[in-house]
Amino acid sequence: MPQLLTPDICVIGAGSGGLSAAAIAAAFGVSVVLIERGPMGGECLNTGCVPSKALLAAAKRAHQIRDAEKFGIRVGNPGIDHKAVAEHVAGVVAAIAPNDSVERFNGLGVDVIKASARFVDPDTVEAGDYQIKARRFVIATGSAPLIPPIPVLDRVPFFTNETIFQNTYRLPQLIILGGGPAGLELAQAHKRLGSEVTVVEAGKALSRDDDELRQYLLNRLRDEGIRVQENARVERIEPFGNNIRVVFANLGRTYSIEGTHLLLAVGRAPVVADLNLEAAGIDYSERGIQVTSGLRTSNKRVYAIGDVTGEVNLTHAANYHASIVIKNALFRLPAKADHSTIPWVTFTDPEVAHVGLTEDAARARYGKLAILRWPYAENDRAQAERETGGFVKVIASRRGKILGAGIVGAQAGELIQMWSLAMQKGISLKVMQSIVSPYPTLSEMNKRAALNYFAPSAQNPFLRRIIALLAKFR
């Protein structure tokens, strides 16, 4: 007979969201069971965010060596040891892994079960030798690479994010299906590490992003020699000698490209197949588990967070979801998830970061807008660092309410946080332009962009008459 456990909360999935939910709940002294069938840390630590950023860091160093002459430093073309690069990536994952380990969470007071979880009824889960009847359940099983139904795909080998980071050699001609953040990040990383790279995207690359910013990035990627083919509907993928051929249609014509290797980065699918959600009375679709604004499923005992909900596939969104669920499940507070001010970043070089509405979305909703920009080229720190490409773009209402912001350029992911905070707390452009930033920093650009909203006031005839009148008094 399985051993019965009756914790206050049972969390299924030890990715970022599940770990956060378990840790927070345990910190408040409630009993927690955490179930994970795979590696602790989930996709983000093992096959996603962490290894991809480590690979990008290695690729950036190679690019900086090639580009060092503009600083007066002559180095030449770098030698790249692909096995050592893979070891660097694995080393970064290994350095972070103890923070997500079974031992750490046992130390926090969490009972960790390494097994698959399966609902047997609305308030019971089986996992290994255990049966868990919890007051509340949190499903945080995340997502997995989507494998598209492309004819003949099963006849060719391909990478996904779950396998690409295990590669230890140069990929001579890499074809990437998918022009989203993951596809473009890995395209640039491999190009800078010596591969020829072609990206094939069925629609618009970075389709969620502001069109002006995404076009700027795509131009920069193409300048580096990365081929990006948009609006390319793949018809089939087939062996071509020792290589791979991708046949696609564009504007009524058929084209083909050949490469030595293929990477699929076309999206993510929620991991729900083995949970037996029907037994728990939990509604779901191919997009994910259906949840309320409070992240509760159709079974009132069960919450779902992160990628498995299909709401926002971002690690920091899963962590945010965890905090919402804890407020609801432990404190009975009517907390609701608000995704409108969650920022997102594509970690290419230059980075592209957004929060809130894009210009097109804002125009559709509000009509007339104030669009504020400030270029990197007019920032002294950017000039010193030779990082003058890019700009800050702020979308505001005519009355000055911040509706969204986007940044393309160096450290955009860091700079966007000021705008995210402003939107979350209702901070006005007036306050943003009054911030005193240290000199010289890139953050001055945020202030300069906000200041642009008030620039027309300097030309106001009435204000000029007031200034002239005041000047007459000593």
TrEMBL record:
Positions of FAD binding: 53, 141-143, 307
Top-level lineage group: Bacteria
Keyword field contains Flavoprotein: yes
Named cofactor requirement(s): FAD
Sequence ranges assigned to domain Pyridine nucleotide-disulphide oxidoreductase dimerisation in this UniProt record: 342-449
Presence of the UniProt keyword Membrane in the record: yes
Textual note on the cofactor: Binds 1 FAD per subunit.
InterPro entries, A to Z: FAD/NAD-bd_sf, FAD/NAD-binding_dom, FAD/NAD-linked_Rdtase_dimer_sf, Pyr_nuc-diS_OxRdtase, Pyr_nucl-diS_OxRdtase_dimer, Pyr_OxRdtase_I_AS
Gene Ontology MF terms: flavin adenine dinucleotide binding; NAD(P)H dehydrogenase (quinone) activity; oxidoreductase activity, acting on a sulfur group of donors, NAD(P) as acceptor
Pfam families the record matches: Pyr_redox_2 (PF07992), Pyr_redox_dim (PF02852)
Domain called FAD/NAD(P)-binding: residue spans: 8-321
Intrachain disulfide bonds: 44-49
Keywords, comma-separated and alphabetical: Disulfide bond, FAD, Flavoprotein, Membrane, NAD, NADP, Nucleotide-binding, Oxidoreductase, Redox-active center, Transmembrane, Transmembrane helix
Binding-site list for NAD(+): 178-185, 201, 267
Transmembrane residue ranges: 12-35
Family statement drawn from the similarity comment of this UniProt entry: Belongs to the class-I pyridine nucleotide-disulfide oxidoreductase family.
The protein's name: FAD-dependent pyridine nucleotide-disulfide oxidoreductase
Provenance organism: Rhodomicrobium vannielii (strain ATCC 17100 / DSM 162 / LMG 4299 / NCIMB 10020 / ATH 3.1.1)
